Amino acid sequence: MKEEIIIAGFGGQGVLSMGKILAYSGLMQGKEVSWMPSYGPEQRGGTANVTVILSDEKISSPILQEYDTAIILNQPSLDKFEPRIKKGGTLLYDGHGFVREPKRTDINIYRIDALETSITSNMAKAFNMFILGGLLKIRPIVEIDNVLLGLKKSLPERHHHLLAQNETALRKGMEILIPVHTL
Amino acid sequence: MEEVKLMKGNEAIAEAAIRCGCDGYFGYPITPQSEVLETLMALEPWKKTGMVVLQAESETASINMVYGGAACGKRVMTSSSSPGISLMQEGLSYIAGAELPCVVVNVTRGGPGLGTIQPSQSDYFQTVKGGGHGDYKLITLAPASVQEMSDYLCLAFDLAFKYRNPVMVLSDGLIGQMMEKVQLPDYQLRLTNEQIREKYPWATLGKQGRTKQNIITSLELVSEEMEKVNNRLQQKYREVEANEVRYETFLCDDADYLLVAFGSTARICQKSVELLREEGIKVGLFRPITLYPYPASQILKYAKQVKGMLSVEMNAGQMVEDVRLAVNGLVPVEFYGRYGGMIPTPEEIVKAAKEKLMA
Amino acid sequence: MQIASCLLQNHTIMTLQEIIQPANKVYGKTPLLTDTPMHYCPGCSHGVVHKLIAEVIEEMGIQDITIGIAPVGCAVFAYNYIDIDWQEAAHGRAPALATAVNRLLPDSCVFTYQGDGDLAAIGTAETIHACNRGENIAIFFINNGIYGMTGGQMAPTTIEGMVTSTSPEGRDVMLEGYPLKISNLLTILDGTCYVTRQAVHTPATVIRAKKAIRKAFENTLAKKGTSVVEFVSTCNSGWKMTPHQANQWMAEHMFKAYPLGDLKDQ
């Protein structure tokens, strides 16, 4: 098994931390993992992305031309990464703030209204956990127990009181997925 | 052994430093390596091992603090990124001249000038061809993974003390910033001052118990004597060249073509080799681990077997000169590079290999 | 001839061996000063300051724990003259080396010995930050207003109107800036516990200077912070004067810009 994932959006949306939780989940499941962020001013409001690879075998290049799965949280990222999803791959995007919808027909496309749901359910800070829940529903690459362990590992202890809320968001995310185009 | 952890290359440097008995770290923040100092400050090793961590006022001060610490026989280090490493060249020349052991980590970013904060390998020349003034060499290790950031840091200290010479760990923003699994080394005890006195009789710890004063200096105004100092250095470098060459090969035995790459680029090239092999093209990867001493004779060996080599680097063509020197015209040596913070993808290298080697 | 005959009448002639008797000894060189002939020009202040530092180290019995950091400049060979462990720093970087030694060997006694170009030009940042951190070190600062070793160029402390090889018409403050009163500047840093300005051109000033050196070392051992002892000094070669003229010129001109006395003592 090998899953090559790009997560991209605005800085502050939790792009890097979502990738980190995913990587820690892979670690808990005994996988080889790599987490390669775009870094620098992106962390302060620009666009941010992170490449996460989970694999049964040793990972060679942490830098990729194409991805199995893309998680897209803003328009510039959609424009940049939609063409770079492998044929037959998966695109998951948050439905908020897009002026142009994905157009590829050779990939699976899912929408998740995570921003809206996270706000209406008063869990805006767990926004990225809704998305992660959605991803795991489509691509069950790691077991949910390992995600919860990974979450615990990646969160500083002072934030451990938020674990329950994050789990709720994760499970809720699995329910609000909307298939847009499936092969 | 420690449990397997997930961390950034920069964090692995900090964790490994504490574990391998480092006495002191002196550094100054610069992207993309600031996590080294941040991690050390968060881990507070002075409470556990007694290791000193100090944020200096500049990279110039950092490297000179390293000089002062190394002169006491202590295991000391600094880390920085390219512009900061430029500022350290003066100190490195003095440390090499005074024959002191220390470790410097360069998490390279793109230049020249302020350049970019994105990854680069454009400090190759600066590192292996000199950088500072005078005839000196830095033993240079190029890690290609987070695990190797940890492993090579400890190896760097061992080599530094074995040869009384500064050792550079030449990494880049990609390895510094990425997270991977890493197994950290076990804790090694720091040497006591008494142990240092015994092991390193040259150390300036105060005269205590010695009739002769210790002087750490790189100065010798009598030319005949200074030539002797240089002879001694050169003799040491020949010894390093004979004993410390390290490299790695990937699918080289039956290869018709060779990619040559170091550090993070070697990781990317490994995937390019896999892709080319899927097409039935027999390509191998030669990865120098020590950039000084350079595995020249090992590359030459493959020159007798392959039709051509491609040096792949994140710069405008630096290591390729050493590959050409090694091969000495036996086979064509081509170059493919991205620079200014751009990272080549495996597919792009495949394309370049086909165009430059197989066209 | 009269005096000689007088001596012959009243005293028996003594041989050299007879004169060198413990009973006749009125002054001894500290064993911490090595027998290496000093390379300093006759009349230079370095020799006196070296001697005072060596004497204080001996008197305090701290030669086994004292580590000196030598500068670039005329005092680059200080390690040849005082028999303790030494590190030779790059130009201006001595306070950085001393910082590391102080941090890694907290029970040692570390001092730097620096000239004005070293401490107040190229090494200004290292000086200020070591003082500001309050490193437990002593800084001995030779201020002769000139670059001695490189042949008499203008220093940051060169006084207004003073002729040097790079200010042949005299220092013009409109062109070259003002003499840098770095010790005054260091007094406002919370990390310094003792900043004083001394000279070594008369017996009285030598006695006071030696007390200042001792105080600086005592502060270091007591971990009170950074002590700075500036020595307003002569460079008769660089100034193109006889030693005697240089001392007079210093008293007349240098002391106006750099008045002697304690600037800070906590």
Give the gist of this structure.
The complex is a heterotrimer of chains A (183), B (359) and C (266). Chain A has 183 residues and is of the alpha/beta class.
How does the SSE layout of this entry go?
The complex is a heterotrimer of chains A (183), B (359) and C (266).
Chain A: E1 2-10, H1 15-28, E2 32-37, E3 47-55, E4 67-72, H2 75-81, E5 85-94, E6 108-112, H3 114-120, H4 127-138, H5 144-154, H6 163-175, E7 177-181
Chain B: E1 4-8, H1 9-19, E2 24-27, H2 34-43, H3 45-48, E3 52-55, H4 59-71, E4 76-80, H5 82-87, H6 89-97, E5 102-108, H7 124-128, E6 139-141, H8 146-163, E7 166-172, H9 173-177, E8 179-183, H10 193-199, E9 215-216, H11 223-243, E10 247-250, E11 257-260, H12 263-278, E12 283-288, E13 290-292, H13 296-303, E14 308-313, H14 319-327, E15 333-337, H15 346-358
Parallel strand pairs in B: 2-3, 2-4, 4-5, 5-7, 6-7, 11-12, 11-14, 14-15
Antiparallel strand pairs in B: 1-8, 6-13, 10-12
Helix pairs in contact in B: 1-2, 1-8, 4-6, 12-15, 13-14
Chain C: H1 2-10, H2 16-19, H3 45-60, E1 66-70, E2 85-88, H4 94-104, E3 109-115, H5 116-122, H6 124-133, E4 137-143, E5 146-147, E6 153-154, H7 173-176, H8 182-187, E7 192-199, H9 203-221, E8 226-232, H10 236-239, H11 243-257, E9 261-265
Parallel strand pairs in C: 1-2, 1-3, 3-4, 4-8, 7-8
Antiparallel strand pairs in C: 5-6, 7-9
The largest sheet of chain C is: 7 strands, mixed
Coarse shape of chain A: globular
- Structure annotation, total helices of chain A: 6
Strand order in the largest sheet of chain C: 2-1-3-4-8-7-9
What is the CATH homology-level superfamily of chain C?
Thiamin diphosphate (ThDP)-binding fold, Pyr/PP domains
Count every beta strand of chain C, where a strand is a DSSP E run of 2 or more residues: 9
Number of helices of chain C: 11
Order of helices and strands of chain A: EHEEEHEEHHHHE
Return the average pLDDT of chain A rounded to an integer. 93
The shape of chain C, in one word, is globular
Taking pLDDT < 50 over at least 5 consecutive residues as the criterion, the unreliable ranges of chain A are none
Helix proportion range of chain A = 25-40%
**How many domain units of chain A?**
1
